[in-house]
Amino acid sequence: MAASAPSTGGEPDPNNSTNLRPPGSSYDAWCGVAHGCTRKLGMKICGFLQKNNSLESSFRERSAKTLLDHQETRFRHTETDFSNLYARDLLPAKNGEEATMQFLLEVVDILTNYIRKTFDRSTKVLDFHHPHQLLEGMEGFNLELSDQPESLEQILVDCRDTLKYGVRTGHPRFFNQLSTGLDIVGLAGEWLTSTANTNMFTYEIAPVFVLMEQLTLRKMMDIVGWRDDEGDGIFSPGGAISNMYSVMVARYKYFPEVKTKGMCAAPRLVLFTSEHSHYSFKKASAALGFGTDNVILLNTDDKGRVIAADLEAKVIAAKQKGYVPIYVNATAGTTVYGAFDPINEIADICEKYNIWLHVDGAWGGSLLMSRKHRHKLSGVERANSVTWNPHKMMGVPLQCSAILVRERGLLEGCNSMCAGYLFQPDKQYDVTYDTGDKAIQCGRHVDIFKFWLMWKAKGTIGFEQHIDKCLDLAAYLYNKIKNRDGYKMVYDAEPQHTNVCFWFFPPSLRGLPDGKDKRERLHKVAPKIKAMMMESGSTMVGYQPQGDKVNFFRMVISNHAATRSDIDFLTDEIERLGQDL
Ligand SMILES: *Cc1c(COP(=O)(O)O)cnc(C)c1O
C-alpha cells in the first residue's frame, strides 16, 4: 500500500507542484510543474513562453524574473567534463543535483540547436544512410547495447547523433507525410508530459490531464455539431486505432453479446468503405474477426469521392445474400487524393438501412476548424462516430488522435472490464472521471496536454489560420503546375484538401506517343527523383501508384513553416533532378 508513503522528494521545494494554479493560464500550468521538476530547464522554457505571452501580468513577469535570477546563481551552465560522469551520478544520487542540472542543460542545448537548424533552409532535411551503414556504426555512434555503463559524454554524443541521422520532419521542405512541422508550444507540452510521466487511466493519478481531455473532447464535439447531451470520446494512439474503435463500438451497438460470446453470436456482418479509404478498416476487420473479405469497397468518381448510389446498390446486394450491413465509413480527406466523400448522401442511406455511419476525418477532420473549408464535411453531425487526428493537419506533435462517438455509454459498455485494482467504485472522488476503462489499452499515454497547450497558445483562430494557409499553398502549387510543361494532374480539379497529385514527365518522355512504353518509363520517374532527393537531402515528397495509375507524386502540406518559396523549391528540384532521366 502506498497510501501513507512519506514524501520522497528530499528537501522541501517551495516551487513544487503545489504551485500549480487552476488552468487559467497555460504559462502557469506549465511553469507550476516545470519549476518543481526541472528548475532551470523549466525556467528556460517558461522564459520563452512568457516572452511570447503578452497577456501575462507584469507582476508574474517580475516574480518569474526574481525566480530566474535565483536559479541562475544556483545553476549556471558550466563547462562540465562528462567523460567521468555516469547515469548513477545523476539524481536520485546523493549530491546528484549539480550533475543532473548540467546534464539536462547540455541536452537542452542539443535540442535547441536542432530546433534552430530545423527551421534554417540551408540545413538538409536528412542525412541519408542505408540500414547496413547505420547498423555497422558511424564514427562515434554505435547502436549496439553494452553490458557496462557508458559515460554521460557518450550519452550526449548519442543524443546528438540520433538527431543527426534522423529526418527533420519539422523542416519547411519536408512534405513526405501528413504529419509534419515542429510546433514550439506543442514541443514544450511534450517535454512537460514526459516530465510528469503519468498515465491516463484514472483521475487518481492524472487529475489535470483527465479534465483537460474531457474538456477538449467536448470542444471538438461542439465543433462537429453534436448537442450538449450527445457525445463521448477518447484519445487513442492514432487514426488507425480510432477507426478500429469505431468498428468495435458499432458492433457493440447492434450485437452487444459479441463482447462476451464472440463473433459466433452474430450473423455474417459486412462493412463498407471506399476503395480510396485508409487501409486501417481492413486491419480492423482482420483484428476484430470480421475478416477482410467482409469489407466491401465502394466505387469512387474521378476525384476519389464515394458514389453514394454504389453504396446503396451494394447494401441491397449484401442483404440479398443474407449478410448484415452494419457499418459504413465516409472519409473526410482521403490519404492520397484528399477527397471528401458526400456525407449527407451517405447518411441518408445509412438512416434508411439502419447502418452505423463513421466519418474518418483523420486527415480532413481538422478542416472543421476553418470557416472557409468546413463545408467540405457538411453532414458530419449526422455521423455516429468521427475520427479526428490533431497530429496531422493541426501540427500537434505525434501522437494525438481522437475517436468521438455520438451516443453516450457505448464506449464504456463496449470496452469496460472494471479491473478492481484501478477502477475501485468506492473512491473519495466522482469516479465517472476514471475514463480509462473506455479504452482498449490499460496504460495510456498523455496525448492531450500538448494539444490543449497549443489550443491555449494559438486560440481556435490560430488553428483556422494554419489550416487556411496550408490550403492556400496547395492551391498555389496546383495553379502553378496545372498548365506547366512536363506536368500532368492525376485528376483535373482544384485540390479538395492540401493533397496535390501529379506526374512529372522528364523532357525525354514528353515527345513519346501514349502507350505501354511511356507508362512504364513514367512509372520509374517518381521513385528515381525521390531517391535522388533523399541522397542529396534537399527535400522529401511522397509518391505512389493508385489503381491503374502509374507512380505519381503526392504532395501534401501541413507544415506551418512552409511558404510559397518552399513550394517553388520543390518544383525546381523535381525539374532539376528529372532533367536527364
Ligand atoms: C493517416 C490516416 C489514418 C491513420 O492515422 P494514423 O494516426 O496514422 O494511425 C486513417 N485515415 C486516414 C484518412 C488517414 O489519412
TrEMBL record:
Gene3D superfamilies hit by this protein: 3.90.1150.170, Type I PLP-dependent aspartate aminotransferase-like (Major domain)
Keyword Hydrolase included in the entry's annotation: no
Keyword Lyase part of the UniProt annotation: yes
N6-(pyridoxal phosphate)lysine: residues carrying this PTM: K392
A matching Pfam family: Pyridoxal_deC
Reaction equations catalysed: L-glutamate + H(+) = 4-aminobutanoate + CO2
Entry-linked InterPro entries: PyrdxlP-dep_de-COase, PyrdxlP-dep_Trfase, PyrdxlP-dep_Trfase_major, Pyridoxal-P_BS
Known EC number: 4.1.1.15
Annotated spans, Disordered: 1-21
Gene Ontology MF term list: glutamate decarboxylase activity; pyridoxal phosphate binding
Domain of life: Eukaryota
Alphabetized UniProt keyword annotations: Decarboxylase, Lyase, Neurotransmitter biosynthesis, Phosphoprotein, Pyridoxal phosphate
Required cofactor names: pyridoxal 5'-phosphate
Enzyme class: lyase
Gene Ontology cellular-component annotations: cytoplasm; presynaptic active zone
Sequence similarity: Belongs to the group II decarboxylase family.
Known partners and oligomeric status: Homodimer.
Functional description taken from the UniProt entry: Catalyzes the synthesis of the inhibitory neurotransmitter gamma-aminobutyric acid (GABA) with pyridoxal 5'-phosphate as cofactor.
Protein name: Glutamate decarboxylase 1
Record organism: Knipowitschia caucasica
